[in-house]
Amino acid sequence: MKINVGILGATGNVGQRFIQMLENHPMFELTALGASQRSAGKTYEDACYWYQTEAIPENIAKKVVVPTEANHPEFENVDIVFSALPANLAKTIEPEFAKAGKLVFSNASAMRMEADVPLIITEVNHEHFKMLETQRDNRGYDGGIITNPNCSTICSSITLKPIMDKFGLDLVNITTMQAISGAGYDGVPGMAILDNMIPYIGGEEEKMQTENLKILGNVENGHFIDGNFKIGVSCNRVPVIDGHTESVFVKTTEEAETEEIIKAMDEFDPLKDFNLPSYAKPIVLRSENDRPQPRLDRNTGNGMSIVVGRVRKDPIFTTKYTALEHNTIRGAAGASVLNAELYVKKYL
């Protein structure tokens, strides 16, 4: 039997990606669409401006949108909600759903760095799910809140994990080239980004630095212990619609040859035996000198794989490489859905 699920913030860009990923999902039945009071009461096709290239699923178009209220009858029989809410709304709305016994898988940033909230990348640190019990004890929730990180953090953490496991991490330096969809449909004016690059994304560098340390750290005695390495990040917005690209420089604790780094990344496939519907090989390696590229590679693994290329020795660090992810699929809705799939199969 499928588990009933709902979406909070269903009309936005990430909410639409949730709808695409949950359509005909073998584990989940999408029964509730929550959005703002402005959208509530309208059919979904009337409430939202659909940004995706594929049409609105027929079974969703005529569904009536309801307010994002935990006590609304439409959410009564829902066990899991996926949150695409803005951070300012998520901070108050998500806890209400957790109190009402719902498991909230959140793409919002509001709760990520809370001391008892798991920040999960399924392939990297799913053992952090155990912090949900600490959260329930601390907050009196019958449900709980599980977050996934910032889109760019997902790209970096997935590629750093196999290197860390094999050789350790001392220093990491990352420069991002982030697509405009990461800022939302109205986020970057056309006149600002066409023929241009913007070398600043508010709060992004701090998120990547703190989130990577939390994710690549440990849980001990009900507390998160940050990873033991230093990380610096520079973030840039570029005129690409979808697909975040990162130039990553890594100094390992132990000596590592380029071929060993490539082998560690290529063999990294920790959840291949779980048969998760949204799962794809986490890292796909390209050997061409000019790959990955957003337009050519962002949909690899149905948008769920990180594509890595140009792995090579660095004269200052140990290694350097280029990584690419689809920021609104692997870096947003897909991360939450994959977290829920594993939690249901392994922990529920």
Describe this structure in words.
The structure is a single chain. The protein is an alpha/beta fold. The protein has two domains: 3-150 and 332-347, Rossmann fold (3-Layer(aba) Sandwich); 151-326, Dihydrodipicolinate Reductase, domain 2, CATH 3.30.360.10. The chain has helices at 13-22, 44-47, 58-61, 87-99, 122-125, 131-139, 151-167, 190-193, 204-215, 258-267, 294-297, 329-347; strands at residues 3-8, 28-35, 66-67, 80-83, 103-106, 144-147, 169-178, 218-220, 223-225, 230-237, 244-252, 283-285, 306-313, 319-325. The protein has a six-stranded parallel beta sheet, with helices on both faces. Strands 10-7-11-14-13-12 form a six-stranded mixed beta sheet. Helix 1 crosses helix 12, helix 7 (151-167) runs parallel beside helix 9 and helix 7 (151-167) crosses helix 12 (329-347). The chain is globular and about 60 Å long. The mean pLDDT is 97. Phosphate binds at residues 112, 207. GO terms for molecular function: aspartate-semialdehyde dehydrogenase activity; NAD binding; NADP binding; protein dimerization activity. Substrate binds at residues 178, 204, 237. Homodimer.
CATH architecture of the largest domain: 2-Layer Sandwich
CATH topology category name of the largest domain: Dihydrodipicolinate Reductase, domain 2
Report the structural category: alpha/beta
Q: List low-confidence stretches.
A: none
Termini Cα gap: 14 Å
| Number of alpha- plus pi-helical segments | 12
| Major beta-sheet overview | 6 strands, parallel
Domain count: the total is 2
Q: On the 0-100 scale, what is the average pLDDT? A: 97
CATH class identity of the largest domain: Alpha Beta
From the alpha carbons, calculate the radius of gyration and give it in angstroms: 20 Å
The percent range for strand residues is 15-25%
